[in-house]
Amino acid sequence: MTDFKKIFAGILKLPMKLIVSSKVILDELSSVKLGAKKQPIFYVVKHDSLSDLIALRNACKEAGLPDPFKPVKVNDKLFRRYVCLDKLSPVLTKASGKTDAHQQMQIVLNQHVEDPELDAQLIPCFVSWGRSPGKETNNIQTLFDHQKKPNWLKKIFVVLFLGRDNFVSVNQPLSLRMVVEQHGCNQEITRKLLRVARFHFQRQQLAMAGPRLWQREQLLTSLLAAPAVKEAISDEVKTKNISSEQAKQLAKTYLEEIAADYRDSWIRMGDAVLTWVWNKLYSGINVTNGEKVRKLAKEGHEIIYMPCHRSHMDYLLLTYVIYHQGLVPPHIAAGVNLNFWPMGGIFRRSGAFFMRRSFRGNKLYSEVFKEYVSQLVSKGHSIKFYPESGRSRTGRLLKPKTGMLAMIVQNMFKGQDRPVTIVPVYIGYEHVMEVKTYLKELSGEKKKKESALHLFSIVKNLRHFGRGYVNFGEPINLNKSMEVFQPEWKQNNEANSKPSWLPNYINNLSHEVMCNINHAAALNGVTLSAMCLSVANQHTLFNDDLVRQINIYLDLHKSASPFSNLSFPPENSIQELIDNAVKMEKFTQDKESNTISIPEESVVELSYYRNNILHLYIIPSLVACIILEAGTISKADLYSEISKLYPIISNEYFLSINPSALGEHLDECIQVLVKHNLATENEESITTVNHDQPNYLQLHLLSLIVQQTLQRYAVVLHAIENSEQGLSRSALEKESLEAAKNLAKLHDIKSPAFTDKSILSQFVGELKEQELIVILEEGRFVATDTLKALSLKIYRLIDGDILNTIKHG
User: Fold this and answer.
1) Could you please report the per-residue DSSP string of 532-592?
2) Helix (H, G, I), strand (E, B), or coil: what is residue 727?
3) Picking from 7-21, 37-51, 146-160, 503-517, which range would have the lowest pLDDT averaged per residue?
4) Going edge to edge, which strands form the sheet with 773-775?
5) Among 719, 731, 716, 676, which Cα is nearest to 699's?
6) Which pairing describes strands 727-728 and 780-783: parallel, antiparallel, or unpaired?
7) Which ranges of 325-434 does DSSP label H, i.e. alpha helix?
8) Minimal CA–CA distance to 59: which of 73, 48, 45?
9) Which long-range contacts (CB under 8 A, 24 or more apart) does 746-751 make?
10) Is 425 helix (H, G, I), strand (E, B) or coil?
11) 52 contact partners, CB below 8 Å, separation of at least 6
């Protein structure tokens, strides 16, 4: 039988190549030793299907794995390399035959008893033709439903019509040696092993296609019948003095405005279009930690994606990446401003559901929306929403809005069976297409409303955008997170209650999400060059100085970095990273003087890209700043000063580093400074390099990164101290903002974040949270002695000229 299949596979090779296009998804295969005699590889597939095996062979070739049609030799015995769990259904009879999977696996397991060194690897390989989840009602799509064990005739139609939408997922191998040692190798263990494989493929199918979809009208009817919505309709009747039918119709109108109309065919079309677009716009899309998310989906987790928001491209890019990870595209919470013709209909059919900016004063809309989100979660649909709500105009993360997150958490009180996991996502670009628009908005220009005309104006300016980055951050298991924060929440749970601890938990959770996003940042040539040149004199450096500086910045995070999900540039030389950044037309290169610079008109724009990774270098910069100010300082004093400043810095830059990890990070910073001859280490003290040494420039540039942050703090602290009677919060924020604007004008500080009202307000809020200010009965803020001591430390670290301006402003 195997020989015949191999022959037929050879005959069908050309026609299959013409009609089939496979997307291959590889899990971690580092444990597999190719060619090892004592570690033979076997593949397990769901169906005994020639087309599946041909697709698998192509995937194995791409992955450098053995051909499934070639037999494997184990202890001088030849075995078929693939194991098929089920035969395809016959055309004429009802019952399908059985495969020899049980017999084959039993023999291989027995070989492990005979040979103690044998460790065969069983690799599950999931082959899918199309990814339609199907509808709750039967329709013609069942003809092309590959997962319902079609007969060979239907399989021909499946391959013909869905051949361009073939996915082959090669999963993590299972050690049969481990199975034998832990469980034995009797008949029952073999049957259990095959049952686990079947269950694995069911989970894989659910992760890839998602749960079955309701017909849209059925969904709306179900939502209108929900108790919370019915109660809100009754309240609407009473408060607005309208009929029950009018209130119900209003609720239905809201639902039609909100609800997605997900269609698999639109996702497939979108995939084809976006593949062409990305190839035109980007030189590549770098994805990090995708295997973590795939593992969660296969384990049955309900996934809530919470990405940062840089660009309108985010909507498309993240969904595209998730789709190509072999996962079902999520339902996306989109602002109602994006529901314009023709994109609104396209987004809706691609899984977008629309929400208004504010629910305030409209209880009926609020309850309808909450119930819709609740239904999505309870039915197992993954969801994506942006915690910042809007796009960041400065390149830094915005303070999160907690409305959607609160809905997800409150849904847990209804008895969610499946584990719910939040996946933070960092999205970055070497070029953001809207960045010039952002700069206009920051300078006071009114934001343009999204429309087809506005979209066309963006599209016509599309050009090469470099690389895009999608890094999945550390997942947060919501069930476990709530258990840690409130151990008995399930026992004291009431479905419609809002416990007193909930607001604090949601605030803490939202901060953790933002920290996990920042901890998964992406380093690249544009952001690193912008970081270096933005603080340099005249925004210019000699090429070799820029190379050295980037080398230091990379070394600061290559070992003992607290940012475990950080991604580094490809293993190119640093010069290649700089050359690529120059090709992106972000920087100017003067070959005569061998310098790289930021053009004067692009200084503000490049601050956006610097801010994408600014949080990664705030602490190393603070270390350099303190060492330079002191000349020589003990490690104990350095760590003490950092630990006092860390709480307010971590809040602003969304950092979450425990004390031991912070200590390791500081140790590593010192070692990097010593390695690059920027400082010397003598027993328990650190001494800075002399200012007449060439390496002094590198240390000085590193120290300048944190300067604007410290200057902004000093502006607020001086305003508090300068008022003997204290200031109200609004007066403090207003006075600080005016002082910051004045300082920016006098010292040519061009970073929009420096005079961002929300960032100043966030700092004031953190001073209050840390109890560094006393609030008098009249609501006036007065500095504590601790804050006064902290102020002196910050003043010492600031350039004297700028400090003089702050104190006389």
Assistant:
1) HHHSSGGGEEEHHHHHHHHHHHHHTTTSS-S-TT-BPPPS--HHHHHHHHHHTTSSEEETT
2) strand
3) 146-160
4) 727-728, 780-783, 773-775
5) 676
6) antiparallel
7) 343-349, 363-378, 403-411
8) 45
9) 746/805, 747/801, 747/802, 747/805, 749/708, 749/711, 750/603, 750/604, 750/607, 751/394, 751/534, 751/604, 751/607, 751/611, 751/708
10) strand
11) 45, 46, 127
Strands 77-79 and 540-542: unpaired
**Could you report the per-residue pLDDT of 533-570, keeping only the tens digit for each?**
999 999 999 999 999 999 999 999 998 899 989 999 98
Cα distances from 323 to residues 19, 20, 346, 584, 591, in angstroms, run: 21, 18, 17, 28, 44
Q: Which of 95, 200, 98, 205 is nearest to 147 (CA)?
A: 205
Report domain 262-491's class: alpha beta
Helix (H) or strand (E) holding 780: strand 780-783
Alpha carbon distance 259, 344 (integer Å)? 12
- Reference 211, options 331, 367, 88, 332; nearest CA is 331
CA distance 259 to 251: 12
Q: What is the pTM of this model?
A: 0.93
Domains 262-491 and 707-807 share a fold: no
Question: Where are the alpha helices (H) located in 93-186, listed in sequence order?
Answer: 101-114, 152-162, 176-183
Alpha-carbon span 730 to 735, nearest angstrom: 9
Gap between the Cα atoms of 633 and 400, Å rounded: 38
Residue type for 704, please?
A: L
In the DSSP assignment, the letter for residue 397 is P
739: left (phi over 0), alpha (psi -120 to 50) or beta: alpha
The answer to whether 173 touches 341, Cβ cutoff 8 Å, is no
- Three-state DSSP at 84 gives strand
d(CA 364, CA 250): 9
Encoding tokens for residue 32?
């597999």
Element containing residue 320 per DSSP (H, E)? helix 313-324
All structural domains of the chain with their residue ranges: 2-209, 262-491, 525-704, 707-807
Q: What is the pLDDT of residues 494-537, one digit of tens each?
A: 656 688 899 999 999 999 999 999 999 999 999 999 999 999 99
CATH architecture type of domain 707-807: Orthogonal Bundle (1.10)
Contact indicator for 478, 368 with CB cutoff of 8 Å: no
The span from the CA of 433 to the CA of 282, in Å, is: 12
Q: What is the distance in angstroms between the CA of the first residue and the CA of the last residue of the chain? A: 88
Beta strand residue intervals within 679-723, DSSP E: 679-682, 685-688
How far is 617 from 216, CA to CA, in rounded Å?
49
Tell which residue, 786, 732, 791, 725, has the closest CA to residue 764: 732
> Quick one: angle between helices 707-722 and 800-807, nearest 10?
30
Backbone torsions φ then ψ of 523, nearest 5 degrees: -90, 135
| Beta carbons within 10 angstroms of residue 246's beta carbon | 13
Distance in angstroms (rounded) separating the CA atoms of residues 422 and 385: 11
Q: CA-CA distances (angstroms) from residue 528 to 84, 92, 581?
A: 50, 65, 9
- Per DSSP bridges, beta strands 121-129 and 41-48 are parallel
pLDDT tops 50 at residue 648: yes
- Residue 155 near residue 90 (C-beta atoms within 8 A): no
The 10 Å Cβ neighbour count of residue 248 is 16
Please give the Cα distance from 427 to 518 (Å, whole number): 10
Q: How far is CA 704 from CA 654, 684, 797, in A?
A: 20, 25, 10
